[in-house]
Design goal:
Layout lengths: L1 E3 L1 H10 L3 E4 L3 H12 L6 E6 L8 E2 L2 E5 L4 H5 L2 E4 L3 H13 L5 E4 L1 H12 L5 E8 L8 H13 L6 E6 L10 E5 L3 H9 E6 L14 E4 L20 H13 L2 E4 L2 H10 L6 E3 L11 H11 L7 E5 L16 H12 L3 E5 L18 E2 L6 H7 L2 E4 L4 H5 L6 E4 L3 H7 L12 E3 L2 H9 L3 H13 L9 H12 L4
Parallel strand pairs: 1-7, 2-3, 2-6, 3-5, 6-7, 8-9, 8-11, 9-10, 11-12, 12-13, 13-14, 15-16, 15-18, 16-17, 18-19, 19-20
Antiparallel strand pairs: 4-5
Length: 481
């Protein structure tokens, strides 16, 4: 098995009848685009990954297959391993075990260098800003609120705002242009934008050129589950290398609290500037009444009906047994406690691909058609989650948070917490029956007193105007508009 240079790849792929690309990240994307430039994309039958769990299911209109389910096909084709160099040996070993020998590894550095060198022939557009929300989820998070403030302040309409999405969506402002994440056009936008705004890690293979600025508007805010270097032993090597590279590229991190400022320094492999002005997405909680009206209208919910939002986080082991909330029973308990009707709504974490195991006749609304999770939080009267950091965001509403933690001991071993769960002010339950009883016993005065004391201890920066402060920082340091 050889590591092929660009000319070798071109020659060997021309001789092949069928090609499988092993990988589903940036290197695989760029290899496909390279084959497309050489009019060989029709030979690519599919992408292959070691495990499908947690990966996308299609790329460029082709399926992403799991290795264990495609061994026979691979034995009859050319397999091109298109991943970062530090991952290639493990994949070569897996293929050898399965007697798949017609393989080659791309020289990822050469491929990436040539690809970006070609893109860099185009000049940087001095008013262009490229936004991403969780690698293509949609219009939401810190990037959304920053984008809207920039549009408001851009009186002369100089700015060109581009948003990377996994699929084209409705609901974007007229002046925000969508581009498909991972497409050829996406990389062109990435190479020519003056500013990048992202709230998750960019891939290790991403290259920032001189004259570009990168704002890391991280999606985390809560002092709950451990992240980054604090769970380094649980993270795959490719993520750690990508995270370090992302922090090296970043020109500024956004922070919402003293807790997170210290965490960036300690655990994010980052020593650069930190903008301590709060998080743009938290601004929505200073407008929660108007947002509540908007959500009620969108879902056609009566104004006298309360909203309970169930928003659990993902599990790294992809188990689904923990998502068995008794939706109807919880809703009835809330109605008994608060003496009004409730509508149950269910949200899915952006990297949670597991099916929820609710009762088949449960009554609820799934929020998958609504991009902005922050607005759902601002509108909800009650939040039910498990270990998700959204409990912290929701705390700005002063409304009750109930934690349904059926797999508490198992999750504790997997991630652990910065603050012991028993010291958090939120109301906890380990079974459906415990949860319903906790709802019936809910004491608002005690809960709010404990919540306010906890939030006061975090050193929060938010005052409802973080979006404006970050936009002004861009105007002062990055783009004059």
């Amino acid at each position: 098995m050889v590591k092929a240079m660009k000319e070798d790849i071109r020659s060997l792929c021309r001789k092949a009848d069928t090609i499988f690309i092993y990988g589903a990240g940036t290197v695989a994307d760029i290899l496909f685009l390279f084959l497309k430039q050489n009019e060989m994309q029709e030979k690519v039958e599919a992408f292959v990954v070691t495990k499908l769990e947690g990966n996308v299911v299609d790329k460029f209109g082709l399926k992403v297959l799991e290795l264990s389910k495609s061994e026979e096909k691979l034995q009859e084709a050319l397999v091109v391993i298109a991943v970062q160099a530090f991952l290639q040996d493990e994949i070569k070993r897996l293929l050898k075990e399965r007697h798949i020998s017609n393989c080659l590894c791309v020289d990822s550095e050469e491929l990436l260098n040539d690809f970006y060198e070609e893109l860099y022939k185009e000049p940087i557009c001095k008013y262009k800003i490229l936004f991403q929300n969780q690698s293509g989820v949609g219009y939401g998070g810190n990037p959304k609120y920053l984008a809207e403030k920039l549009l408001e302040l851009d009186k002369e309409e100089k700015l060109e705002l581009v948003w990377a999405v996994s699929q084209y969506r409705k609901g974007f402002p007229e002046r925000v242009r969508q581009v498909l994440y991972g497409s050829e056009e996406y990389y062109q936008e990435l190479a020519t934008a003056k500013v990048w705004v992202d709230n998750s890690r960019k891939a290790y293979s991403t290259r920032k050129r001189e004259g570009q600025f990168y704002i890391q508007a991280w999606h985390g805010a809560a002092p709950i589950k451990r992240v980054e270097a604090d769970v380094q032993d649980k993270l795959p090597e490719f993520y750690i290398e990508g995270a370090k590279h992302d922090s090296e590229m970043a020109d500024v991190f956004l922070s919402g609290s003293e807790f997170y400022t210290e965490l960036y320094r300690k655990s994010f492999w980052y020593q650069g500037p930190i903008l301590k002005v709060g998080l743009p997405r938290h601004d929505v909680f200073w407008k929660k009444d108007a947002i509540r009206d908007k959500i009620h209208e969108f879902y056609d919910i009566g104004k006298d009906v309360g909203i309970v939002l169930y928003a659990p986080t993902f599990r790294s082991n992809y188990k689904k047994e923990c998502y068995d909330l008794d939706l109807d029973g919880v809703r009835r308990a809330l109605e008994n406690r608060f003496q009004k009707p409730f509508q149950m709504m269910v949200s899915r974490h952006p990297v949670n691909y597991q099916e929820y195991s609710f009762q088949t006749d449960a009554h609820y609304l799934f929020t998958g058609d609504y991009d902005d999770f922050q607005e759902l939080l601002a509108a909800a009267d009650v939040l039910i989650t498990d270990y998700s950091g959204c409990m912290y965001d929701f705390s700005y509403t002063n409304r009750p948070v109930f934690l349904y933690q059926k797999d508490y001991e198992e999750y504790l071993q997997d991630r652990n917490f910065y603050i012991p769960m028993e010291k958090l002010p939120y109301i906890k339950a380990h079974s459906n029956e415990e949860l319903k009883e906790a709802i019936e016993r809910y004491d608002e005065k005690t809960y709010r007193s404990e919540l306010n004391a906890f939030m006061g201890s975090m050193g929060n920066y938010d005052t409802g105007d973080a979006s404006e402060k970050v936009a002004e920082y861009i105007r002062e340091h990055m783009i004059c508009f």
